[in-house]
Backbone:
């Protein structure tokens, strides 16, 4: 997971997502977005690594695996939000099936 102190790494991740999309023009919807939230009292337990682990576990439960994702953390509200942005394509450049029974990205 990237932090505010790593803006170049975040920009690189976004460029990589975009490059993957351009290399696979038939992909259609290339990026997905999921929001995970926690109550404010969990703030001390939620390191960037812990949020990335929770996001990965959530994606696995949705049967979404073998793809790139990043988690953007927002603690400015009265609760904690982890916005999970994922590439809807596997490492093999194949559209991935979502937990909703639909194949996204191709």
Residues:
């Amino acid at each position: 997971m990237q932090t505010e102190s790593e803006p170049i790494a975040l920009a690189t991740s976004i460029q990589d997502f975009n490059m993957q999309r351009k290399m696979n023009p038939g992909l259609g919807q290339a990026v997905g977005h999921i929001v995970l939230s926690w109550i404010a009292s969990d703030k001390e337990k939620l390191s960037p690594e812990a949020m990335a682990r929770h996001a990965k576990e959530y994606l696995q439960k949705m049967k979404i695996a073998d793809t790139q994702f990043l988690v953007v953390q927002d603690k400015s509200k009265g609760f904690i939000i982890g916005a999970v942005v994922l590439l809807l394509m596997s490492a093999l450049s194949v559209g991935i099936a979502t937990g909703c029974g639909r194949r996204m990205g191709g």
Observations:
- The longest helix spans residues 7-23.
- The chain has a mean pLDDT of 74.
